[in-house]
Amino acid sequence: MNKEQMQKKYISYWERNKKTSGYLLKKDIKNLIYRIIRFFLLFGMCFLILQPIFNKISISFMAEEDLYNAMVISVPEHFTSANYLLAAQFMSYFSTLRNTLLVSLTIAVLQIIVCTVAGYGFARFEFPFKKFWFACVMLAIIIPPQTISSSLHLHFRYFDILGIANLTMGHTINLRGSVLPYYLMSAGCMGLKNGLYIYMIRQFFRNIPKEMEEAAYVDGCGTFKTFIRIMLPDAKPIVTSCFLFSFVWQWTDSFYSKMFLGNVQLLSIQLQQIGEKLSNYMIYTLNQATGASVGYTECIISTGTLMVIFPLLILYLFAQKGFVESLSSTGIKM
């Protein structure tokens, strides 16, 4: 755009503003102020979310002397990767990562399968005590799992079905320390956040027109075939969202993992023990009488935390498009 065109545009703008008695200028000023406020709000929220992560990344590359140097704030003076090597050693990182990936993936798949079927049933079918059972689903969302931890411990420590095990073997079965109790709970829709997934999937199916199912019935599809070929493909957005939520929450869970999977090394459990292992390393390996300092312990814990969430960041980078699309599509239909 040359100078003459800019002048014509400038004169045209003020002429239109004069004809509207200053409304055009006021409107542009309001839009500008709105954009500035929106920019600072978004910048502030992004800073609050990302600043702790950037801080942990900076600390993870600092040597121990940098932690107590008042001149070192964000950029390490003595750059080192030894913290990552120590954290990987204390957490048995690669073998633990493999176990965590296997458990999180299988649990997430199992939870989404059973929650999708349960959610569809609540949305489309009438059965005895339907409102009561859905109230139980809501209670599973509201009540913290810590309140039933003692009952869960005793149930799986002395596991028996209708007294069959005690009758045939003379004693109950101890399922603690294995993955089987958690698989049983997930298969029964009592795993981590299963009530929330059922509620979300139910709300999604309720907003799908029933005419789609009726048309499928007219074409000769039964209930199961209609669910698999018609309703399930349409529910891909909400299923994708719930699967990612389930995978991430299971990845970072420590309550159920510590209760049921004590003999299986998982990242969330190993991260809790990294401070104790660092102290033992300093005392028994490096022969330091006082053990690890508080600052250095926090540094190794921050490094271990980054190593735990790093696979989740990679997952988000690859799945962000489908995840955002699934959330937006779910929001429109809900």
UniProtKB/TrEMBL annotation:
Per the record, its GO cellular-component terms are: plasma membrane
List where in the cell it is found: Cell membrane
Membrane topology per record? Multi-pass membrane protein
- Give yes or no: UniProt keyword Nucleus: no
Residue stretches making up the ABC transmembrane type-1 domain: 97-318
Please report which protein family the annotation says this sequence is part of.
Answer: Belongs to the binding-protein-dependent transport system permease family.
Q: What is the name of this protein? A: Carbohydrate ABC transporter permease
This protein's species is: Lachnotalea glycerini
